[in-house]
Amino acid sequence: MTRRHVLGMSLVTTISAVGGGLERVGGSCQQVAQETAGPFPADGSNSSGGAIKNVLTDPRVLRRDIRSDFDGKNPQVGVPFELSLKVRNLDRDCEAWAGCFVYIWHCTAQGAYSQYSGMMAGGDHEDHHFLRGVQATDEEGVVRFQTIFPGRYDGRATHIHFEVYAPDAKIGTVDGLDGKLLATSQLAFPESLTDGEESPYHDVDVYGKSLTRVLSNENDNVFSDGTETEMLTIVGDSQKGYQASIEVAISETPAAPSGPPGGGPPSGGRSGHGGPGGVPPRPAQGEGTPPRPLPSKED
Fold first, then answer.
1. Where is the composition biased (Gly residues) (predicted)?
2. Is domain 3-250 in CATH 1.40.20.10, yes or no?
3. Which of 106, 172, 233, 265 could form a disulfide with 277 if both were Cys (CB 3.0 to 4.6 A apart)?
4. What's this model's pTM, rounded to 2 decimal places?
């Protein structure tokens, strides 16, 4: 039984994920797989350029449209992408979980990340906040984000990172996050969309080399052990945009750290998902950068 299957079991019942939602039997559901946050979380757990990166202390991070920097400048180009994510409480019969916080981040159409600099980040973007944002779940347990269809880079399949924080987390303040991180995971994309004839990556003027950076979910170091709890359901097209949806089940007990060991965070940083402290010397658990050999899943 793989690590993912162990994490995914909840009660003794038959569970399956169907069409981006959770098929529940006997008041149970499948816990979302815990994954690495990668080298670019900007959640206070690492640093870049000698400074701890943490957008979660800025109240402007609470926003639905994440395409630009916090000040509205530097909007990112790409096919419109609307994400709807529903959180369920694994410990309360999988009921919709209102009031918890969902933080998402992903790369640009060209494969770059805001808040970081260097070849791995795709350039110097330390002073930018694009493609990062937090929403609190509504009464139905749902958050909605307006963003762009992510690009991809060598060594990784297309993906979106996300973290879920407890309702009493003080998002947008300088403290109040320690012990509030409940889950860290990633969202997967159907290969029929990323690699098919209708893929937005065919627009090379926008998406650059994403079309030729082909890596299946099966061969991806994060998704290779399955995407049962992480696969998005996506409708739409590359002309008008896409609408994606998924339901994830989270426990009230903070999940065990995922990702490679890296010691504690740099001085002044916070602990959380077990990712590397400071700027990692290499990508974490499959986070790609051209060119390099892929690390192992347990690396």
1. 265-277
2. no
3. 265
4. 0.81
